[in-house]
Amino acid sequence: MRYTKTFLSVASFFSLLGGHVLAADLAPAAFPERAPYMPVENASGWYLRGDVAYNFSSTVNAHVDYPSGTTPSEYELKRGFSPFIGVGYQFNDYLRADATVGYSQRDSNYYETTTKLWEAMANAYVDLGNYYGITPYVGGGIGFANVNYDYQGPVDARLSSGSTNRFEWALMAGIAVDITPRLKLDLGYRYADIGGKDLYRDGDVTIRDDGVKTHQIRAGVRFNTW
Question: How many domains, the chain?
């Protein structure tokens, strides 16, 4: 009888202990609090830009038409720098557009001719993703150029200071480097093609240039203002 009571006491103790252990095992696990949700702001807004272009190759093709035939010629504008300024808008992470104005004045290797170019362009770009702060892009633009030849050659005085407005198109490619959240360094290449125009016509004689084709290396900054 004494052994029976002892056995029951021991069984009751282990039963009670097992209940506490089981209760502890079934307690819900404690999870860390979730961080508050922070919305991601899209890369959009207005920006200002300024660039300096180095014109390393600019070709002008021209010809003189006579009743007896055509005399073609080709000359190069000397290398030089061109400033550009503009304003644009970033629509989203991949698409942006801007309007730019630029100017250059360069001599040529054809007699004593100075060429002055004013360019007004509307451009669109596709940004190809941001990789460790670097965004490659491609783009294209259309616009107008005012071409002024100050010609000192032996043909006709009416060619001097002749100013013409032409259609222009361009293709661009480059990279943008994040300097600060609002400031980017823009490095790129640009090909521009300015259309041709008749410069002088007198009876059966016509002098025409077939356009200006320019290759540029560009460096500038873009600053998001709004």
Answer: 1
Average pLDDT over residues 136-142: 98
Residue 162 CA to residue 74 CA, distance in Å, equals 19
Does residue 31 belong to any structural domain of this protein? no
Residue 7: its H or E element: helix 2-25
**3-state SS class at 189:** strand
Could you list the residue range(s) of the whole structural domain that residue 83 is in? 45-224
> Quick check: is 208 in a domain?
yes
**Residue 142 covered by a domain:** yes
Tokens of 41: 């702001």
From 105, 111, 90, 210, select the one nearest 148 (Cα to Cα): 105
Output the domain CATH number for residue 181: 2.40.160.20
Q: Is residue 40 part of a domain?
A: no
The predicted-structure confidence for 24-63, as pLDDT tens digits, reads as follows 454 455 545 554 434 434 457 999 999 999 999 988 877 6
Nearest Cα to 175, choosing from 155, 189, 195?
189
Q: Take residue 159 and report the two structure tokens written for it.
A: 């060619």
- Please list, residue by residue across 62-94, b when 16 or more beta carbons sit within 10 angstroms of its beta carbon and e when fewer do: bebeeeeeeeeeebebeeeebebebebebeeee
pTM score = 0.74
